[in-house]
Amino acid sequence: MTSKTRKAAACVTLFCSLLLGCSGMNENGADAPVRASSEVQDEVEKVSSSILEILSLKAKMTEAGAMISPCEGGAVRAHHPWAVYGPPAEKLEEAMERLRGQLPKKGWKIVKDGPDDSQGKSPQIVADSTDGKFSVDARFHGRQSDDPAQLEVTVQSACFRPEAGSTS
After folding, report:
1. pTM of the model
2. DSSP characters for 99-131?
3. pLDDT single digits (tens) 12-62
4. Pairwise CA distance, residues 138 & 151, whole Å
5. Are 156 and 109 spatial neighbours (Cβ–Cβ below 8 Å)?
6. Where are the beta strands (DSSP E) in the chain?
């Protein structure tokens, strides 16, 4: 898979995950709590930082902040897609193992651990926070091609309704 193809696949994956949502999280916009979008975005970025700490890698990281995307029923969610790259594939695989071992110890329930639906069947871990407020989707890309290996992570919040005047 070329880097251009991988980027296109990542965009499709992200788009599909945004449309389908994360497992176990409230998708009913009518039941969604009212929150300030900027606060939820900050929380999602803090969760991303905690995931990065678990990965414990000296690596390059893509730089994108948390964004707002729609849920059902007029609600929204914050999501933060990012990736780490640079270390050899073996180091990234070790980081996925750390994630697999540490998430349950840090208040996460792993709801999927296996190959994703891509042609390359990339290893994927999906976990929901036990409080139901966040979900993380981590995928390892690196054994199927000559492209540089990377870990692709998306953290997203449960659905919420933005406060009046809240930026989204």
Report:
1. 0.80
2. HHHHTGGGTEEEEEEEE-SSTT--EEEEEEETT
3. 333 333 333 444 444 556 688 999 999 999 999 999 999 999 999 988 999
4. 7
5. no
6. 34-35, 60-61, 67-70, 76-85, 108-115, 123-129, 134-141, 150-157, 161-162
3-state helix, strand, coil in the chain (%, to 5): 35, 30, 35
The whole-angstrom separation of Cα 94 and Cα 1 is 22
Q: What pLDDT, in 10s, does the model give residues 95-133?
A: 999 999 999 999 999 999 999 998 889 999 999 999 999
Nearest to 39 by CA among 19, 68, 14: 68
**What's the CA gap between 134 and 111, in Å, rounded?**
13
Q: Given the DSSP bridges, would you call strands 123-129 and 134-141 parallel, antiparallel or unpaired? A: antiparallel
Rounded to a whole number of angstroms, the distance between the first and last alpha carbons of the chain is 35
Mean pLDDT of the chain: 83
C-alpha closest to that of 35 among 60, 68, 1, 73: 68
Q: How far apart are CA 51 and CA 100, in angstroms?
A: 11
